[in-house]
Specification:
Distance between the termini: 65 Å
Helix content: 10-25%
Strand order of the largest sheet: 19-20-21-22-23-24-25-26-27-28-29-30-31
Largest sheet: 13 strands, antiparallel
Shape: globular
Number of strands: 31
Radius of gyration: 30 Å
Length: 696
């Protein structure tokens, strides 16, 4: 009896030790599956990557190449986009259209965590692969994963592609007979169809991932529920349902993978990763100004004022700084052109003003502008700031008396000093336009150089233009006229090949009149060549309360299509385009922006666009959008409706000095004509981001 008791106590001690070590195990940084997303090899697990993790994955075997990108949008939500190159199939039977290109399948996956792992309970997630579209790999699953020391065990049930062998009965079929059968028909590329979710055959799957004592090496083994008898690449032989593989972690940001699957097939590939929450600016910043107060009667000395204005411009980042005294307030105004976190610029400006403070000043007022439109004023009381800078006696600390308010305009005073802002600006930048996964070529690209210039005629009237020079492109392969599934809509975007055939062209040439209308209202009117394909006139009004989590705007435009043979002229197509747009930051989802628009698009189809994005701690933004209009799927053509993804990256992650510039990478599965917005260069919501205290 004592031996049994001692054995049980020993077993319990070992179990507790394994449970305790699980939280410290390297498996808390899970690995990617063959098809992208956290998983074993062919099957997923319930695990989620660390919030903000972004991975690029490549896997290769005799039948398929899998290219995927996965991002942990939230701690509880994983999203994956994937291209699959089916090496045994041609894209189209019409070789004049797609040549010898092999078949490419586009897919979008989601995985949602239902609950996290506890001491006794496993982590549980539910997900769907290949949502809609052709559905070559469409499947759904529910999976449970539990760590035990260096082992991570998974048990799950798959439906569709993951459950083709049907080794168990679909539990949903017991409740509703409509779940007993799956259509198994290939959908239309780019469409979304949820009719088959959790229907058809079901299979159990499972496996284990083992962290070896040698830290870079992990081993995987799994039992899968697919039988590969109806595979798009052809009926594939499966000698074993057990797959085994290994992962070698080269660095924190790179893995190489090899596996032996189906008892007869080798799979190999790699994963590259980063984390959008953990990226930090590479810029080398100038030191913050030291607090060294000078005699108060020195403010009017020319050298003192000149140094103060110079520091405001180059240290605090306020372009075109203006300093003036009115009553008991010292005002500083300028455009923040250096810091994404504008509070950094305000803090620096306050110290600069405190060091040369005029007599009897009790308040500092820093007003930030953008395109000569006042955004926000930060008011700071001198006594509280002085105490902050000099330090409080222990136990008598006080908070800084500072508020953000609607912009204050002190007007022009006799005691005013400024550095005139630059009215003319010019730049030269490289440009890469791209399209991935089209039927004519897997990758279409255009590389060129854009020369930009703008000039402020007045404080509110801006002349802006850019010239694009082609260096190289392969859009000669874009052959929409011969597409098997053509659209009946006017060709508002699918003439892209005709435009990029020009070696040098004026990309845009326009006049913009912008004005802050007061009380949170902003407006602009504009006219000229507004983008590569369209010119015309239009206007926009935005209402954006200070530091509110919402805004609303409306734009209206009349445009004509530019003639690609002579881009300084127009052809005979015109359209009325406009949208009513609401912007919302949900209070319960940090960093998320929801944009919803209703209106009329370039093909004069009417509908709505929803755009959802998340801003990570580094400032990187990941977003997705979809537009559905009154155009039927048949009229729209392949893809059913417009959709896409984008990543916006702050340039100060790469530049040598702080900057507010951004670069954006867009991914649009198909270029079609429905649901297409006018590509306006200046949008008021983007130009008023400083009114949001949380914008970084």
């Amino acid at each position: 009896m004592k031996k049994t008791y001692l054995f049980s106590l020993l077993a319990l001690s070992v179990a507790c030790a394994c449970q305790a070590s699980a939280s410290d195990n390297d498996l808390v940084t899970p690995s990617q599956s063959d098809m992208g997303g956290v998983g074993l090899l062919q099957v997923p697990t319930a695990r989620m990557a660390k919030d903000g993790e972004f991975s690029l994955n490549y896997r290769y075997n005799d039948q398929y190449r899998f290219y995927s990108s996965s991002v942990q949008l939230f701690p509880w939500l994983e999203a994956t986009i994937r291209y699959t190159d089916v090496k045994t199939r041609r894209y189209s039977a019409d070789s004049s259209f797609s040549g010898n290109q092999t078949y490419k399948d586009k897919a979008f996956d989601l995985k949602l965590r239902l609950w996290q792992e506890g001491y006794w309970l496993p982590e549980v997630s539910v997900g769907a692969r290949d949502l809609g579209g052709t559905g070559l790999f469409d499947s759904e699953f529910i999976a449970a994963t539990k760590a035990w020391g260096p082992f991570d065990f998974t048990l799950g049930m798959g439906f569709g592609y993951l459950g083709n062998s049907g080794n168990v009965k679909n539990p949903f079929c017991q409740a509703d007979s409509s779940y007993c059968n799956r259509s198994n028909g290939n959908g239309e590329a780019g469409s979304v169809n949820g009719d088959d979710l959790f229907k058809g055959p079901a299979s159990l799957f499972g496996g284990v991932e083992y962290q070896t004592p040698w830290q870079p090496l992990r081993l995987k083994a799994e039992y899968e529920g697919n039988d590969y008898q109806g595979d798009f690449a052809g009926r594939l032989e499966q000698r074993s349902k057990v797959n085994v593989g290994a992962i070698y972690r080269l660095t924190d940001w790179a893995d190489v993978n090899v596996s032996y699957e189906r008892g007869n097939t080798f799979m190999a590939g790699f994963t590259l990763r980063t984390n959008f929450n953990e990226l930090r600016s590479a810029a080398i910043d100038s030191p913050k100004p030291a607090y060294k107060p000078q005699p108060q009667d020195r403010f009017l000395e020319p050298t003192v004022v000149a140094n103060q204005l110079t520091d405001l411009k180059y240290n605090a980042g306020l372009s075109g700084p203006n300093l003036q005294v009115k009553g008991n307030t010292l005002y500083a105004t300028g455009q923040q052109s250096k810091y994404r976190n504008t509070q950094e610029g305000v803090d620096r400006a306050n110290v600069i003003m405190m060091n040369n403070l005029p007599a009897d000043i009790d308040t500092l007022s820093v007003t930030e502008t953008r395109n000569n439109m006042p955004q926000v004023t930060t008011v700071t009381h001198v006594d509280s700031l002085r105490q902050q800078l000099e330090g409080y006696p222990l136990g008598k600390e006080k908070s800084l008396d500072q508020q953000r308010e609607e912009p204050r305009d002190p007007g022009r005073t006799e005691q005013g000093f400024h550095i005139a802002p630059d009215r003319f600006n010019a730049s030269l930048s490289p440009v890469l336009n791209q399209s991935v996964g089209g039927p004519e070529s897997f990758y279409l690209y255009q590389v060129g150089v854009m020369a930009n210039a703008n000039y402020w005629l007045t404080d509110h009237l801006l002349l802006d233009g850019s010239v694009f020079a082609n260096i190289a492109n392969n859009y000669d392969k874009f052959n929409y006229n011969g597409a098997p599934t053509d659209s009946s809509l006017p060709r508002v975007r699918t003439h892209i090949r005709d435009y990029v055939d020009n070696n040098v062209y004026v990309n845009n040439l326009q006049a913009n009149y912008m004005h802050a209308l007061g009380n949170g209202f902003y407006g602009q009117v504009y006219g000229g060549y507004l983008e590569t394909m369209y010119g015309g006139v239009g206007g926009e009004v935005l209402y954006r309360p200070l530091d509110a989590d919402w805004a609303v705007g409306v734009d209206a435009n009349y445009v004509k299509r530019r003639d690609w043979d002579n881009m300084m002229q127009f052809d005979n197509y015109d359209a009325k385009v406009g949208n009513l747009t609401a912007y919302w930051h949900p209070w319960f989802m940090n960093g998320v922006l929801v944009k919803a628009s209703v209106g009329q698009y370039l093909a004069e189809d009417k509908g709505a666009t929803v755009d959802i994005s998340r801003r990570f701690d580094s400032g990187v933004i990941v977003g997705a959008y979809a537009t559905k209009t009154d155009v039927s799927a048949e009229e729209y053509g392949e893809g059913d409706f417009t959709k896409g993804f984008y990543v916006s990256i702050p340039m100060d992650l790469f530049t040598a000095s702080p900057t507010r510039g951004r670069a954006q990478v867009n991914w649009t599965p198909l270029t079609r004509d429905g649901g297409q917005m006018l590509g306006r260069k200046y949008q008021l919501y983007d130009m008023t981001s400083d009114r949001d205290i949380n914008y970084r």
